[in-house]
Amino acid sequence: MAITNIPSFTKVPNRSQAPSTFSDDVDTYHSEIPAFIDASNQQAQEVNAAAEQVATQAAAVAEASAAFESGVNADRWAAGDYSDGDAVWSPSDGLTYRAKADFTSVLDPATDPANWHNLNPVAQAKDEMTRLALVFAANF
């Protein structure tokens, strides 16, 4: 993402200059201030937009990382009570799932997509985290 460069002043007055040169340099300097202000404001907007993108990408990377981590540390599924975000692996297919809400699970996660989010394969979550990190790095 390109960020606007703030222009340099072409003439910066110096009190050691001759009065006629100083006066001309002050006039030039003052005439360039509006462009300097406009570029500064534009740059601030671009930096704020970039910061928002960074926050969005960081959240996506954190989510992918959490999905990966929860898949790695998942327990074997058994019927019982689960909380939103709990991760288990299915004994029927060996894949990892995350609970979508607090509920009592009586069905294997592989056959209950209404209550379980498929995190699989775990490598896919890792690949997504890597992809998001690359997107982030390419943009900033």
Give a verbal description of the structure.
The chain is of the alpha+beta class and 140 residues long. The chain has one domain (19-139). Helix content is 51%, strand content 13%. It contains 2 helices and 6 strands. The strands form 2 sheets. It has a 4-stranded mixed beta sheet with strand order 1-3-4-6, covered by helices on one side. Helix 1 (19-72) runs antiparallel to helix 2 (122-139). The longest helix is centred in the N-terminal third of the chain and has 54 residues, at 19-72. It is rod-shaped, with a radius of gyration of 28 Å. The model has no long low-confidence stretch (mean pLDDT 86).
Q: How many domains would you count in the coordinates?
A: 1
Helix/strand structural class: alpha+beta
Strand order of the largest sheet: 1-3-4-6
Proportion of beta-strand residues: 5-15%
Helix content: 40-55%
- The shape is rod-shaped
Low-confidence stretches: none
**What's the overall average pLDDT, rounded?**
86
Number of helices: 2
Number of beta strands: 6
Please describe the biggest sheet, giving its number of strands, its sense, and whether it closes into a barrel: 4 strands, mixed
Radius of gyration: 28 Å
Q: Helix and strand string, N-terminal first?
A: HEEEEEEH
The first-to-last residue Cα distance is 7 Å
